[in-house]
Amino acid sequence: MHITLEQYNLFTWLWMGLGVSIFILLLFITAPYGRHTKTTWGPLINNKLGWFIMEITLIGVLAFFVCIGHNKQSLVNWIIVGLITFHYLNRSLLFPLRIRTGYKKMPVLIMFMGVFFNIINGFLFGYYLAYFKVYPTNWMMSPQFIIGAIIFIAGTVINWKSDNVLIHLRKPGELGYKIPQGGWFRYISCPNLFGEVIEWMGFALLTWSLPGLAFFVWTFANLVPRAVAHHQWYHKQFANYPPYRKAIFPFLW
Q1: Structure confidence by residue, pLDDT tens digits, 99-137
Q2: Is the Cβ–Cβ distance between 87 and 145 less than 8 Å?
Q3: DSSP labels, 155-187
Q4: CA nearest 113: which of 47, 185, 194, 53?
Q5: Residue 27, pLDDT above cutoff 80
Q6: At what angle do helices 75-89 and 108-127 cross, to 10 degrees?
C-alpha cells in the first residue's frame, strides 16, 4: 500500500511540528548521554555500539525504499543518496571508532529513541526519492543546489575538524575533560554541533524539498539544546572557561 503525496506531506509537516515541540522540551531536559549520562534512565549499552546501531539504521531504511521504489533514480537523486550515506557512515562507523570513550555507556532507551528517529528520517527521504521526486540533471546548475552544496561541504568540514579537536584532547588512557581551544572553539563551545546544523541547512537548500527541511528542523531541535547544555556544563566544570564564547552560534547564542 502506497501513500499519496498529500498524505506524505501531511505526515512530514506533523513530524516537523513534533520536532519543534522536542526542541522546547530539550531546552529544559538534557538528553542523558555522553557527559550528561544518567543511570536513572534504565539499562545502559556501550557508547560506541549504541552510536553504531542508531546511525546505521537510517542507511538501511533509505536503501530499502530507494531499491523497492518505482522511480528510476537520476544522477542528482544518487548524489543526494550519497550525501546522506556519507554523513551516516561517518556517524555510524568512523566516529565511534575514533572517539576515545570506550568505557562510556548510554541508556538503551536513548539508543532506541535514536533508532526511531532515524527510521522516520530514512523513510522520509527514501520514500520521497522512491516515489515522488526525480531530479533532472540540470538541477545541479540551479542556485539552490550550488549554494546548498557549498554550505553542506562547509558544515561538514567544520564538523569534522571540530570533532578532531575534541577527540585529540584526551591522550590514550586519559578519562577527564579539558577546555578545547583553537578554530571555531575561539567563538563557540560546540562548533562540531554548529557544523552539523550548517551541513543539514545546506542539504535542505540543495534538495529544495519538504523532507530536506524536516531533516534540518530535527537537527536544529536536537543539537541546539544539546549545545546549550554543553555550554552550561563547561561553565560549571571550569572556573577559567572563556566568558566570551557562545554556545553554538558565534556572537549570538
Answers
A1: 766 567 888 988 999 999 999 999 999 999 999 999 999
A2: no
A3: HHHHHHHHHHHHHTTSPTT--S-----SGGGGT
A4: 53
A5: yes
A6: 170
pLDDT of residue 35 exceeding 90, the answer is no
> Are 201 and 151 contacting, i.e. CB atoms less than 8 angstroms apart?
yes
Report the amino acid identity of residue 249.
Answer: F
**CA atoms of 89 and 55, how far apart (whole Å):** 8
The residue type at 20:
V
Burial code (b: 16+ CB inside 10 Å, e: under 16) for 231-242 equals bebbeeeeeeee
Instruction: Decide: 233 and 31 in contact? Cβ < 8 Å.
Output: no
Retrieve residue 200's grid coordinates.
543539514
Chain segment 57-88, per-residue pLDDT in tens: 999 999 999 999 988 999 999 999 999 999 99
Cell of 45: 549499552
Q: Which of 131, 123, 126, 1 has the alpha carbon at shortest distance from 71?
A: 131
